[in-house]
Amino acid sequence: MASAPSSPDQPSEPRPLTHPLQIPAFRAFLVLRLCTILGQTGMSIIIAWQAYNIARLTMAPAHAAAQLGLIGLIQFVVLFLATPFAGLASDNYKRTRIGMVTLTMLLGCAAVLALSSYEGWISLPLIFSIAAVLGLARAFQGPALSSLAPNIVPMEMLPRAIAFSSMFWQAGGIVGPALAGYAYALESYYAYIISAVLFLVSVVALVMVGDVPQAPPQKGRHPIRQVIDGLSYVRTNRLVFGAITLDLFAVLLAGTTALLPVYARDILHIGSAGLGHLAAAPGVGAGITALIFSFRPLRHNVGLKMLLSVGVFGLATIAFGLTAFMPAGIAMPVALIAMATWGSADMFSVFVRQSLIQIHTPDEMRGRVSSVSMMTISASNELGEAESGFLAALIGPVAAVVLGGAGAILITLYWSRLFPELRRARTFDPPEDLQISSYPSARAKENPA
């Protein structure tokens, strides 16, 4: 006898989640990531291009390169000072609200740059001021938004979610600089208008993410004590500490992106459109790597493979630097291949490092730990750009790039001995006694009714 049909009022059994893309909030989060990085990378590359061209009106190439270093230094100082407070805010206040404030700041920067470019009063002091505001926005945005994904998806899906998030982030890195370069070739202010529109879309996407659960703040504990707790956790967890500091010193030495305008204008002679290609090439390599990880997540010998990827990162940097000595017909293709390899190796390292840090950190401390990670990323990026710019002013851009790549390789070899925990990290599995998720289904499993 056939079974009776179920009552329309009877709730159907929810389908089990098997993929992060099944979660609407995570899909909105991916749109947020994509549009934010599209706007940021496009705006940043045009800021550097305009600053270098303004400086070249009155300065030699070496001194103009130092102005690019100054932009990175300003952002690093602001990030360094604001980061402890940013991590504390991320653990004690709604991370989505912090993200909304920072997106509004980015939108304001894009609007000012568009207006000043349109009316012709853009200048180095204005660019330096905007750089400081961008540094402040990124200081608070990084810990807040990077801590959302572990609370949107179940922990067992987190490596795959990080791969998708990184893929969208790198897709923005591919398209953002190229789009901005082409837009700037038409009218300088077009690039900033595009960034402003993208930031508006990011605001809408963040609204669609909705209310994201997070661990309650630590009541009764002094804010300074909470900051110290976060720093102490990073320092005593050697796996987390080794992963964070490896990125700090490797990218600090091998940060070539600050010198891309120098290569585009005075070494490869390819103009703003060529600059867009060079700036997008790392994103192409990184995007392909992230796409592979999104379908075939890395599972075994993750620490050793991360170390090897940083070594490849250094080799690609050296190859890019040596394009200065190649014939014109060969230099540009080799430069693009080198930068794509650079981005692919960096993505490999970032994927492993972020997965290890997020999975090995309790949620109530994730904002502070993410802020420390953000500070080291800032040190490696912004301070690395400052180092590259100032070193290029002293010994020339080619020598600065080649020596930086060699330094990254030496750091990797030394870190593999200093932190054997990195070599021994076989999988992404967290310690059994570590509670790291505040995803609702995970909490339900731990506290059944």
Largest sheet: none
SS element count, helices: 17
CATH architecture: Up-down Bundle
Order of helices and strands: HHHHHHHHHHHHHHHHH
C-alpha termini separation:
36 Å
Structural class: mainly alpha
As a percent range, the share of strand residues is under 5%
CATH homologous superfamily classification: MFS general substrate transporter like domains
Instruction: Identify the overall geometry.
Output: globular
Q: Radius of gyration from the CA trace?
A: 22 Å
- Average per-residue pLDDT, rounded, comes to 79
Question: What's the CATH C level?
Answer: Mainly Alpha
Whole-number tally of structural domains: 1
Low-confidence spans: 435-449
The total beta strand count reads 0
| CATH topology grouping | Growth Hormone, Chain: A
**Portion of residues within helices:** over 70%
Task: Throw out a few tags for this protein.
449 residues, Growth Hormone, Chain: A, 17 helices, 77% helix
Topology summary:
Elements lengths: L23 H33 L4 H32 L2 H25 L4 H23 L2 H4 L5 H29 L1 H22 L13 H14 L1 H16 L6 H8 L3 H25 L6 H20 L6 H32 L6 H30 L1 H22 L1 H5 L15 H7 L3
Descriptive notes:
This protein has 449 residues and is mostly helical. It has a single domain (20-212, 222-429), classed as Growth Hormone, Chain: A (Up-down Bundle), CATH 1.20.1250. It has helices spanning 24-56, 61-92, 95-119, 124-146, 149-152, 158-186, 188-209, 223-236, 238-253, 260-267, 271-295, 302-321, 328-359, 366-395, 397-418, 420-424, 440-446. The longest helix is centred in the first third of the chain and has 33 residues, at 24-56. The radius of gyration is 22 Å and the shape is globular. The two termini are 36 Å apart. The model is unreliable at 435-449 (pLDDT under 50).
